[in-house]
User: What shape does this take?
Amino acid sequence: MRFGLRPDSVPERAALALGLVPTPFLHTHPTLLLARALIAAVEHSVFEALTDGPRSAAEVAHACDTHPDATAALLDALTGAEYLERQGDGYVLCPVARKWLLRDSPCSLVDSIRFRAIEWDWISRLDDFLVTGEPLDFHRAMTEDEWGLYQRGMLALARLAVPETIRRTSVPEGARTLLDVGGSHGAFASAFCARYPNLRATVLDLPEAVLHAAPLLAEAAASAGINGRVEHQPGDVLTDDLGEGAWDVVFVGQLVHHFDEATGRDLMRRIARALRPGGVLIVQEVMRDRKPDDQLGALAGLYFALTSAAGTRTFEEIADWQREAGLIPQRPVRFRTLPGVGQQNAVKPG
Ligand SMILES: C[S@@+](CC[C@H](N)C(=O)[O-])C[C@H]1O[C@@H](n2cnc3c(N)ncnc32)[C@H](O)[C@@H]1O
Assistant: This one.
């Protein structure tokens, strides 16, 4: 999956093919505006104001407490981007906005989009990073509010990954214990417990994360009907003792991109020791393709380099870490519902 310019006509297609279109301008100016228009619209509940049918710009401005002329310009931009449609004098939601951008939708990305406002500031520091090579280390720099939004933003994305994760992951027969490393909101741990009635889960995350993720975990556990079988453990996976032969399943979701290679390899060794013989390690990540034109994987790699001094990895790299740790890597699982996301699982020899 990649994004790019989509010609609207045969002459535009020809101009693009002939290299006549100033693609760097179009990759920067409209994309910046589109990103910020979506963030602002979500932040000011513009999509919510359109939930019940056509509204004029003035009505949306009134509902959102925004300026009528500025609101009209925003609504036109969102219409051009196919998030809204015109209906008479009013605007209505397109299906894509109704599915992803309303707070009560089961697929809501509202909290994830709101987190973009924080990332906007981080990304604006990319040129400093380029010169100094100093990453942001955002886990050490976030405010209380940012930690809260970070956890809720992660949950919005995790909800999309949970069904395929459960469908495509084999847990050993009779498994009783699961450690969810960097598990935050506990959506994955709760879903595994709901699917496997004998399973109990511990969700290990940094204390700042647990503070804000505790209500999310309680909600996930209650809605999965598994109260009492999943709990948080505040800590740091890089320094905490993970035990020896203690876990049937260890799930590591979207975490290793925060660690450099030596740290990642060391983590695999400590997890291998912590697993029971026959136990399974699941590493779920935004995976990098081996092809150099993997646009989304490489951009994600740049983001993680900027924010955490690390990056995206290929299935083969993670499998190599697992092999070195004495585990047996399994076949890569490429998610069908989330482009670029995949799982590299491994089994501890019995
Ligand atoms: C990108 S989020 C992923 C959350 C969740 N696993 C998911 O897939 O939705 C990374 C999580 O790892 C946690 N984390 C980062 N460094 C950690 C560490 N050293 N020990 C434990 N958790 C850590 C963060 O606080 C955050 O909750």
